Each structure stands twice: as structure tokens, then as C-alpha cells.
Amino acid sequence: LFHQVPLIEMDGMKMVQTKAILNYIAGKYNLYGKDLKERLMIDTYAEGARDIMDLIMGVPFTPPEKKQSTLNNLETKAKVRSLPAYEKALSSSQYLVGNQLSCADVSLFEVALMLEELFPTILSTFPNIQVRITNLPDWLLAATSGRRIIEGLTVLLYFPALFITEFKWVLTRS
Questions:
Q1: pLDDT at 100 over 60
Q2: pTM of the model
Q3: CATH code of the domain in which 96 resides
Q4: Is 137 helix (H, G, I), strand (E, B) or coil?
């Protein structure tokens, strides 16, 4: 459609745009909630993670003289605004939304890995998040094994790995 990647062929369709592809996979494999209320919450948590990921993705392109202040701002936003919301949700449930794995949990896993790459102790005051990301299914945890670290671009490698792993996993469920 837009002559770009990622391009996935599934169910006789050519799909582009990462979010559209993930939403399709989530809907097809019941990772997108049981009703509109759950979908709203899943989207809310996923977009909250996306806000932090957008900040993270900008770090490698920040001018050297602004890099430390950018990192400080990112760490503060994550610790004060984002992570407490996830921590609170996980204080009463194994999953962010409903009673099963959803896209929201995958988004949290992704952003937590990215944050830990930049700030190794950032999750130390968020025990529920720590438990959640260590108790995810093996197929999701495998997404980060064997990743290549390229200085300044490490965080850019996580999402494609998660997407590819998720895609392979759903294919095996068909």
C-alpha cells in the first residue's frame, strides 16, 4: 500500500504499518480484550508505553550537548508518570487488563526492556512490573535473546525482534 516495511502477508492480505499489523494479530489471536472497555484500557496502556518509546527512540539523535538533559527528562517521566500507572494496575492482577495476556502486557515488556537498557536500576522500585516481565510466556522472552547491541542503536532493535517473534508465534497457533 505505502511501499514500505514492515510488510506482512497473512490471511491473503498484504499488511503494512506496524500498529495496524499488531492490532490485526491481536484481534485475530485474542490479545485485544473481550470488549470495548478492555480494548480502551489496552490501547491506553499501549499508547502510554508508546509515549515513552518515542522519547527513547529520539535519544540516539539528540545533540551531545543536550543528551544528558534529555536522558534526565526521560527518566523522570518514566519514574513519575508512566511506571507508577503500570505498577498500580499490576498490584491487583497478573495482567494489565482483564485476565489474560494482551497487547498492553507486550507493550509494557518492550518499554521496560528499553528503559533498563538506558537506566539499569529504573525498575528497582517497581516490584510488580519486575514480576510481570519475568513471568511472560517463553515466546515473548525469546524475542530478546541473542540480540545484537550496536552502540546508540540498541533500543531500536527491540521492537522488530518482538514483532518477528510474535508473528512466528501466532503462525504456529494457526
A1: yes
A2: 0.75
A3: 1.20.1050.10
A4: coil
